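Weekly modeling sync, notes
Attendees: AB, CL, MP (scribe)

Item 1: holo prediction request
CL wants a bound-state model with fe (iii) ion before deciding which constructs to order. AB pointed out that an apo prediction alone won't tell us much about the pocket. Agreed to run with the ligand included and paste results into these notes for async review.

Input as submitted:
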Amino acid sequence: MAKITASVYTSHVPAIGAAMDMGKTQEAYWQPLFKGYDYSKQWLKDNKPDVIFLVYNDHATAFSLDMIPTFAIGTAAEYKPADEGYGARPVPVVKGHPELASHIAQSVIQQDFDLTIVNKMDVDHGLTVPLSLMCGEQDPVKGAWPCPVIPFAVNVVQYPVPSGQRCFNLGQAIRKAVESYDEDLNIHIWGTGGMSHQLQGARAGLINREWDNHWLDLMINDPVACAQTPHIDYVREAGSEGIELVMWLIARGAMADVNGGQVTTALPTVKHRFYHVPASNTAVGHVILENA
Ligand code: DHB
Ligand code: FE
């Protein structure tokens, strides 16, 4: 059967992708950020998954106000990097896994989560920047991402957005779905976006280092309590875009210690934890967990 063995959590910021694409990673501003991912790049090489299930948010790129799916699963064979206003990032096309994605859609919908099926879409920085951080620079034509990716888009842009609790429950359904797939595949699930940041309004530039780190402690060690964090706490403490963090709870809910909404076995092993302020307007958090 297929199995989720590890989860990866990381912020996304378009400027991080631009810094990589323009060869600026060793500049004084960026160097400390990218150093935080040196361990992760080696870890991913040493623990190469067969498929990455990548939870992220689209930023009005693939979806506009015309259509706003709360949860959308990519079932396509490939996804092109999107043009976000300055042309598409020079990174490889993302290969999908239509068979596994369709199986997960079937199972998760039958577990009463309403997913939107997406057979064609482009993927923006929400998906490509985490891939770049974890895999390093890739030639757009000759290079390739290490394995197929199933994009899973969550609406955290246009209200109403899903609660952390619902995301946590969904993660548990995704793990069940994966474990009912009849092929020995090693799957990693990634939760991306966050941490504290606000891009507009009177509080633009808000960063809350203390709250972020407390939330990370909870997410790792007491995910049941973390899932109960009300929506308004994210917005008040972590800024309007801090709500992207609910996506991390999908990945956390898919880890092996969580069963029936409770932690019933040993917590996952923290392989890596990193926090850096700022990257553009955003606090960057990054964690790697392996099942105990
Ligand atoms: C920034 C952060 C985001 O999450 C995003 O989607 C766009 C920009 C920023 O910090 O610049
Ligand atoms: Fe964002």
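Recorded for review: The mean pLDDT is 98.
Action items: CL to compare against the apo run; MP to circulate these notes.
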